[in-house]
Amino acid sequence: MTRYDRRFWFLAAGLSATAGYVDAIGFLRLGGFFVSFMSGNSTRFAVGAVTDAHVAYVAGALIAGFAAGVAGGTWLSVRHGGGRLPVSLLLMGALLALAAASDGRSPAMATSLMMAAAMGAANTIFQRDGEVSIGVTYMTGTLVKFVQRLTAALMGGGPRWAWLPYALLWMGLVAGACGGAAVYGAVGTAGVWLAVAAVALLAGYARAIGRPHAP
C-alpha cells in the first residue's frame, strides 16, 4: 500500500469503510455470517460441514458469491480497464444497488449473495501486474503490517509513518462496521442504499485522481 500515492490511501480507506459498513449489515441480517470476511465464512463452512448442513450451505453460498464478484471484477479490469475510473468500482456499486433494490422483493439469500459479490468486486479495484495489491475487506494481513510498521518506527528501524496507510485501512473498516450496525438497527437492509451513495462519491473521487497505479 505504501507504493501508492497518498491520494489513493484515502480511496482505499473509503472502500474499506464501505466494506465494513456492508459487512456489518450482512452480519446482522444473516445472524452471524459475513458478506466480506471469507476467512470467517470458510471456518463456518468447515464446522457446518461436520455439524450443521444448513450452516455449511449458507457459508458456502456466500463464499461462492464473493468469488463470483472477484471473477467479474477481474474480467472487467482485463477487458475494459483502460479508463480513468476503475470498472470494478462500477461493478461494486451496481451490485450493491441491485442488493438494495431486491430487498423484500427477492429471496433473502439472493440479496445477501449480491452483497457478497459486491465485496468480491471491491477487492479487484487495486491491482498491480494482474495481482490484487490492496485488499479492502481482509484485515488480518493489514493489521499485521500496521503493527509491524509501527513497532519498527518506534524502535527507530523503519520509516516513521509507514504504518499510517495500514492504520487508515483497518480503522476505516472498523468505523464503517460501526456505522453499518447503527444504520441496520434503524432501517434494516435498506441501509445498503447509503453504501451505494458512498460508492458513487468514491467513484467521483477516483475519476478525479485517475486510475490506481503503483511502481
From TrEMBL:
The entry's keywords: Membrane, Transmembrane, Transmembrane helix
One Pfam assignment: DUF1275
TM helices/strands, residue ranges: 55-78, 85-102, 163-184, 190-209
Keyword Magnesium: no
Keyword Transferase attached: no
Superkingdom, taxonomy of origin: Bacteria
Record's protein name: Membrane protein
Provenance organism: Sphingomonas melonis
